[in-house]
Write a structure and sequence with these properties.
mainly alpha; 17 helices
């Protein structure tokens, strides 16, 4: 990537996001833990829930990294582009994203079929409806269609596909009308149409921060921010704004101005992390390591939380429970990568990508 935001920084941001993700899914509501004897080490349950609510910004961090990364690759290919290559570019990225998801979803559906006592009796009135729900889930569109999903965290697959499909459109709007016009349209559209807050599991709620990632890449914002000469003023002001945003996160009405929670606050976290936090090399290395496994951890961690709940919550300490979930999920991630490599699954999709590239050249 650019000199401002390196590939390692993006990977570290994913690592931060996946840590937040696990914590968020452990404590975002009291119902997640109230049946267990969790020790909060001097904190109250409500305080931990508040922190877990703030960790929802993990979704926005993933969306920002996606917007920045797609913009970077799209810019490199821009001189070669025509109508056909735009569709090829879109297909290549959808295949890249979906390939990892398909592998995991098929495996865990197999496990669920073997272990579930009640099967899919709530998924539809007949076999056709149940099969349709399963197919929609494996294709990553259950959130779009409002059908059942094996894993509630998988809703983000719909967002990832949406972002890829909308990316060329957003880029064209930015080219034609400017970045501010594009961001303004994203801000105004749900308000003009009367739709209001799209919801915490809607791709549109995170479209703003996705587009901000695109804009930052287009103008190499992180390099410009890093080169700003007044270092002390920059640090104090950024830290103040970050603390203010975190303090006000749960106090602001999310249905009125959700961009504060899902765009402004995560952007400040990203900016502070890249500019200052990642200077701590050991910490940055840990985040990068987790970032490499972030997709697999995201896809499996709630299975670990729910299917191994007796063992996970037996550790009792509130901070240790997410760590245990993370470590087990990390072990599963290594196993999944091993299977993908030695079954030839990875190579299969590499060949598909090569075929698309060959078709592009003809």
């Amino acid at each position: 990537m650019s000199k401002g935001l390196k590939k390692e920084d993006s990977m570290a941001l994913k690592g931060i996001a996946v840590l937040m993700l696990v914590f968020h899914h452990c404590y975002r509501t009291a119902a997640k833990f109230e049946q267990y004897d969790v020790v909060f080490c001097g904190l109250s349950a409500s305080q931990v829930i508040t922190v877990a609510e703030i960790c929802k910004i993990c979704v926005a961090i993933f969306a920002f990294v996606s917007g920045y990364g797609l913009m970077y690759g799209y810019t490199i290919d821009k001189k070669k582009r025509n109508t056909r290559s735009i569709s090829t570019w879109t297909l290549r990225h959808i295949l890249s994203v979906m390939s990892g998801f398909w592998f995991v979803s098929v495996i865990f559906y197999g496990i669920y079929i073997c272990l579930a006592r009640n099967g899919f009796y709530k998924w539809g009135e007949n076999a056709v409806e149940k099969c349709f729900c399963i197919l929609a889930d494996v294709c990553g569109v259950s959130s779009f269609l409002g059908t059942k999903s094996l894993n509630g965290a998988w809703w983000y697959m719909s967002a990832a596909v949406t972002f890829i499909l909308l990316f060329p459109v957003l880029d064209a709007v930015m080219e034609r009308f400017g970045e501010l016009s594009c961001l303004g349209m994203i801000f105004l559209l749900p308000r003009i149409t009367g739709k209001g807050f799209p919801g915490g599991s809607s791709p549109y709620s995170f479209l703003m921060i996705f587009a901000v990632g695109m804009v930052c890449c287009r103008h190499d914002f992180f390099r410009l921010f890093h080169e700003y000469p007044r270092k002390k003023i920059k640090f104090v002001l950024l830290l103040f704004l970050l603390l203010l945003a975190l303090w006000g996160y749960s106090k602001m009405d999310i249905t009125f101005m959700w961009e504060m929670q899902y765009a402004v606050t995560p952007f400040l976290v990203i900016l502070f992390s890249v500019e200052y936090l990642f200077r701590l090399r050991l910490l940055a290395a840990v985040f990068q390591y987790l970032g490499k496994h972030s997709m697999n951890i995201w896809l499996v961690h709630t299975f670990v939380r729910d299917w191994l709940n007796t063992y996970v919550y037996a550790v009792r300490l509130f901070w240790l429970i997410p760590v245990v979930i993370l470590m087990i999920s990390l072990g599963i991630s290594y196993f999944l990568d091993f299977l993908k490599k030695y079954t030839g699954y990875d190579r299969l999709f590499e060949r598909l990508q090569e075929r698309l590239d060959e078709g592009e050249k003809k």
